[in-house]
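User: quick one, fold this
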Amino acid sequence: GLKNINFKSGYPVPLTVTDIRVNSAHKTDATKASDYMKSQGVRMVFEFDLTTSVFHNFAEYLYGNNMVEQQNWEAGKYFLTSLNFGGLKDTSSFQEIFFNDPSFGVKRSNFLEFASHECDYCFWMIHYRNRQRVTTVAQASPISTNTELQDEHVLDTNIVCMFTKANADCPNIIKRVKSQIETNLAGKSYSKYANFPSCSESDWATRYWRNYTQLLDIKSTWDPANQFHHCQSVGSTDISCCPDYGLATSGQAKTCMGVEGPGAGQPCVFPFSYLGNSYTACTTAQPFNRAWCPTSVGIYGDVKTWAYCDQSCPTQ
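Assistant:
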């Protein structure tokens, strides 16, 4: 409705602005936040202070109710698929996707297009980090997620979708966007590799947290009985909450994707030849210590470019 009322080509994007200055109040003033955004050239849907305050209070109410609703969700009802990229210098890797992607872009023709892939709920968050200071505790014991790369001004982005049907197509649209962003980031530095916490890689914990061994030590003190043991919590190796992405809805094997390396974001090419052997699936053949595949091959099936395989890919 707001898109049509304001005669815009894209859907409005909710903004959350937090005043993190040393002398800031407990809550950020919505009007001052709005004025700041306007000063930075952001076009606001609501131009008047009263309207901004009313909308802010309404959004705060909805958010609080959403938290209560999530706490009361039936255990095991929802599957989750997500991507997360952190420590980004700018938005160039996902800018085109943000505006024009058919499922998530603000200019998409169908607002609920993601629902056609059996996603029940999706959100896209972009977090601009403006670090003002680092506490002595954080300097001495850095256990926060590794997103800043020691830079003061970086950004993170993540897309999260929830779905109830175990073999839904929903994870595929996340994988599509994930692959596009990975391709755009080729050769660039970024952290907190997709997905998070991650169903795609066995070492998700050490990648998601900067100092995972210290977290394990802390857990052994405050939770020696391991009562806090949900899927993929600290100390857990359980991935039972992850949907089985190995088979498509039709029952056919899905395209295996390269997720890291020179050919990241490209589909694997099978069969291929390597060191005199023929392969029809990913392999851990040397010199690599993880399952990998070619993303392009020569006329005789020899490897030209390669990438590490998604964890859901079969290995030979």
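User: anything notable?
Assistant: The mean pLDDT is 76.
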